[in-house]
Design goal:
Elements lengths: L4 E10 L2 E11 L4 E5 L6 H8 L7 E6 L7 E2 L5 H6 L2 E3 L12 H9 L7 H6 L2 H20 L15 H13 L5 E5 L7 H18 L2 E5 L3 H7 L2 E6 L2 E6 L1 H6 L1 H8 L5
Parallel strand pairs: 3-8, 3-9, 6-7, 7-8
Antiparallel strand pairs: 1-2, 1-4, 4-5, 9-10
Helix pairs in contact: 3-5, 3-6
Length: 261
């Protein structure tokens, strides 16, 4: 079976700076994979290449969601990448702050709508049924992530940890095969991080969604990841299981310090 995501010799340059340097990378179906490294190592640039924010300077990106044949997605716009089964969150929360929690998730579901302009104008029964299903599906996602009590609240009024979870809920609204989480635990307290840990595993197990995350919280990374890739100065310096990464001297030198995480 083809990996759900694979990059081959992926490189991204900005003038004289090489932010991502010849990276070969795989995420298999059903895996929780972490991408770690020091600040400025190229992790978010890698995400931006995979999700269509940047077109890589060279190399290839292939996806094979839902057991399809691998498709090369270099140069696709972000919305087209999302339609093919990849969804992401961002380091900085990017919710529609003046929309309700439910509306934020419904926005994520719009790519699944079949009704076109005529349906929106004339509103036949099929269109209204589809709209009702979007509402119900969005509510179900909120319930799964423990956000149903906020359904009619404006996003800006949610506690910080709930806003982080809402970003994940909105991404899930696109029905991704692969969910990319960019520092999902950033700014969370220990209890919120523990709940996030459990939620990510639940999303994978219940929804059969593969997970790729960038994260600096090593306790979270080590507890939920089956495979870890480590980058430093744009180069991939190690890959392996959490135990292998903890003991890798190159990783210890570049990122984890002298003590085990």
């Amino acid at each position: 079976m083809a990996p759900i995501l694979e990059t081959k010799n992926l490189t991204m340059q900005f003038g004289g700076l090489t932010a991502v340097d010849n990276i070969n990378f795989k995420v298999n179906s059903g895996e929780i994979v972490a991408l770690i490294g020091p600040n400025g190592a190229g992790k978010t640039t890698f995400f931006n290449c995979v999700t269509g924010v940047y077109t890589p300077t060279s190399g290839d990106i292939f996806i094979a969601p839902n057991k399809t044949s691998p498709q090369r997605i270099n140069g696709l716009k972000p919305n087209k990448v999302t339609e093919k089964g990849l969804a992401r969150t961002f380091q900085n929360i990017r919710l529609f702050q003046n929309m309700t929690v439910l509306e934020n998730v419904m926005i994520g579901r719009h790519i699944k709508l079949k009704s076109g302009l005529l349906g929106a104008i004339f509103r036949p029964k099929a269109t209204m049924d589809e709209e009702q299903k979007v509402i119900q599906d969005s509510y179900d996602i909120l319930t799964e992530l423990g956000l149903e009590q906020y359904v009619n609240e404006l996003a800006k009024n949610l506690p910080y940890g709930a806003q982080r979870r809402l970003e994940i809920a909105r991404a899930m609204g696109t029905e991704p095969a692969l969910l990319l989480l960019d520092e999902p635990a950033a700014g969370m307290n220990p209890q919120e991080t523990k709940e996030l840990d459990e939620m990510i595993v639940k999303i994978r197990d219940v929804n059969k969604i593969s997970i790729l995350l960038i994260e600096h919280d090593m306790s979270l990374v080590m507890s939920i990841s089956e495979k870890i890739f480590v980058v430093d100065y744009g180069k991939l310096i190690a890959e392996g299981s959490p135990d292998e990464i903890k003991q890798n001297p190159d990783v210890i030198k570049a990122y984890l310090g002298d003590e085990d995480a």
